[in-house]
Amino acid sequence: xxxxxxxxxxxxxxxxxxxxxxxxxxxxxxxxxxxxxxxxxxxxxxxxxxxxxxxxxxxxxxxxxxxxxxxxxxxxxxxxxxxxxxxxxxxxxxxxxxxxxxxxxxxxxxxxxxxxxxxxxxxxxxxxxxxxxxxxxxxxxxxxxxxxxxxxxxxxxxxxxxxxxxxxxxxxxxxxxxxxxxxxxxxxxxxxxxxxxxxxxxxxxx
Length: 206
Ligand SMILES: [Zn+2]
Fold this sequence. Notes:
This protein is 44% helix and 16% strand. By secondary structure, it is of the alpha/beta class. The chain has one domain (27-205): Beta-carbonic Anhydrase, Chain A (3-Layer(aba) Sandwich).
């Protein structure tokens, strides 16, 4: 890790010294990306962005919970609120990915009933995909297939997009045309980004 840091410090950082000096004054990213914590789905790498360009939240399965005011630590909601209301991003991209462990667990309910700290936190988090998972389970006779897993991964992106729409501040900006919500999906093996068509909800290579 430290060797990597030294390469960055002597390479990327040194090359973009002026940009970093500007960024020290503040940030004004135009896009927020919600991605999975999976080590293979790194937004700044996939979109080849510069420092300060994208505001990123990563969590298990790239999920956005619905607007909720129940007690709890609403990390995603806090980041959304900050990006939308204070930074004024013009776009929110939800990027799912292939071979997602969180989506696999949602489809197979493999963590159901686990204690917190032994899979329970994951189970509780991905339970927001239960309805979508039920649909995939009823559509595919064999949920072990790659097709079923893929359907679950795309469904998860749609759930997050739907949940984004439950936030009043997001609804308002989308209605005014100052904020766009986009779905995307990154296949791991062949490294292809798929983008969701707003009207059909279908994904196709960018
Ligand atoms: Zn994942």
